[in-house]
Amino acid sequence: MYRYFLLIISIVVGISCTNKYAKMAKKGSIAEKDSAAVYFFNKKNYETAMPILEELLGVYRGTARYQKILYFYAYCKYGMHDYLTAAFYFEEFTKQFPSSEYTEDCQFMIANCYRAMSADYILDQSETQKAIENFEFFIEQYPMSPRVEKAETYIKELREKLMIKAFEQANLYYKIGYYKSAVVAFKNFISDYPGSLYREEAAYKMIKSSLEYAKQSIETKQAERYQTTLDLYQKFVERYPTSKYLKDAENCYSEAQKNLERIKKNLQ
Prior knowledge:
The protein is mainly alpha-helical. It contains 12 helices and no strands. The N and C termini lie far apart (103 Å). The radius of gyration is 30 Å and the shape is rod-shaped. It has 3 domains: 21-80, no CATH class; 99-176, Methane Monooxygenase Hydroxylase, Chain G, domain 1 (Up-down Bundle); 178-268, Serine Threonine Protein Phosphatase 5, Tetratricopeptide repeat.
């Protein structure tokens, strides 16, 4: 019963405080509006804090207090999931106050905003790339920061998304029969992500794409492109001698070799 009574009292006090600060926000002095903004910000009531902070930004511009209000304002935008605007204001903070105690946090939050905007891998990955670049910049600027480990973890996660995007793009070319583009895309994937779990599959599909591309080529180009298929196969066997794709790769090799021998015979 006593705990229930305390709960009722705390609710009443909370409502009373909220009403008090709401009145201060509307009709109070600058100092009272400042207190109201901080109160609502700390309560994570960002929608209420936002317009008060916007007013205070104009009032405090050119004063020492402006720095903290701008910091709160950027975090309000972040808390309201307006990540693009939040990134803008966090960056503005780092430019205007490069030596502030809050600058390190703002630099991290710029990257974190872009990470929050990073789309699923099937969509455009511009924000993903920006997030990686900003996390890398953060690590470069603050190598001793306790947030470096978290930044490195985020970079790894974001690069994984780019890796999947690159593989699926190459795979799409392969599936729809754009074999020349598939060869290039798989080659770039292997070069860019040498440690990927998809590397073996990409290497096999590059052989298959190369073979199909050679078959579609004009006669004067076929010999050269069949030879490319044979070369890709040799590299594949050397790297993956027990691959689950080995039998299919051997079939590609046999077909390419047979066609190449036929072309050479016809040229005699």
